[in-house]
Amino acid sequence: MNNIIYSDAPESYGIFDKNNFKKILFVCTEYFNHTIIILSMLPFINDKYPEAEITVICCEDTTELFIKCPFINKTISINREKANYDKIYLDKIKETLNTITYDLAINSSYYRDVLSDVIIMFSQAEIKIAFFHFKELTPLFFKIDRPSVRKLFNFDYTYLFYDEEEKPDLERYRNFLSIFGIKLANLLPDIWTKQEDQEFAQRFFLSENIKPKQAIAVFIGNKENINIYINCLDGLIQVAKMQSLKIIIFNNQTVCDFFKESYEGIININSTIITEVEILKLCSLSVSLNINPEVDILSVSEVIKVPHIFVASPLDLKNLNSGGHFTSIACLPLDCENCKKPCQYKYCISDIYSEVFAEIIKEVLNQTPVIPTLFTQGNLLCQVKYAKPKWQPFSFKTEFYKQTSFGVFRLYPLNKF
Predict the structure, then answer these.
(1) Which H or E element spans position 6?
(2) Which of 135, 255, 275, 388 lies 20 to 30 A from 109 at CA?
């Protein structure tokens, strides 16, 4: 039977303060946005156990983040889909893990998935630690679809760390570090890059004759998004022309070609996440235009402190736990209680006027300091073309609510909503 450690119990602090771990396995099967937050623990674990060899096992889509991290000795990259459904592939992961005897294995996911639990079980570490909570939805390969069966994985852990669910992620991980005797006032995420990544971004700006802070970075996803976001892109081009700014589009030559006739200052660049980080540092603003939003870009903008605008559907707004300190939201105030994707209407984004979006961009560019803001289009401009969903005013608890030009409503501060 495992022991439960409660974050608010005084006796929980420093349980492993005297341990001298030599081999640590750090498991992270999360997607990009949560991985950035989880990464923030590694410098402190490395500092606490300077003689330990830290091995990270992560998924392919986040491998680059860990490879660049200077506090890791070894990175094992796995394919999430194959590991979930291919038993032969999973057995190979087990063989790899069994070549090393670990003193400590940490499951870093607050809501553990089955894959991370299985990897921890494979490690056969002397001490295995995880958060108490787990995801009930699991891959088909394991055929575990009942919470009662899913709880059996709890028994393989030496300790389970219990922390309240209604809490910011960084605060949870700060509390988690306390069991190792690591006391922090704040835990801040970071993304590590190397000199060659910085040089890549500088060469790109130089080759395109772009001055630092004279460009807007845009993430739009696939080419099917063009028609949905065409008004937003038109508004973006209006501001770029007016202020002589370049528009950098990442990994989407189709969109770049589509709008090249409207504005010659649109440039596409094919890059990795890490090189995108260095390019973003040189930009004045980043904008997410994606019907399946790149929340990871939101996380990146927060880490490198670049103002960010996220164009959100009502469902995106409900699923977003925190807008952060550098992210503003642009949306239509629609009554979408049962909003599902794919949406049969899609005008929650396509009906944002280009003039409205241009005003939003100009205001964010002019903010000093950056004020996290929720921008909505007023009912005077919102054309309800269909029977539903209907326009409705927002009911967020805010300290300020003001109508600006072009019918844009502005609500701030918006650090959390």
Answers:
(1) strand 3-6
(2) 275
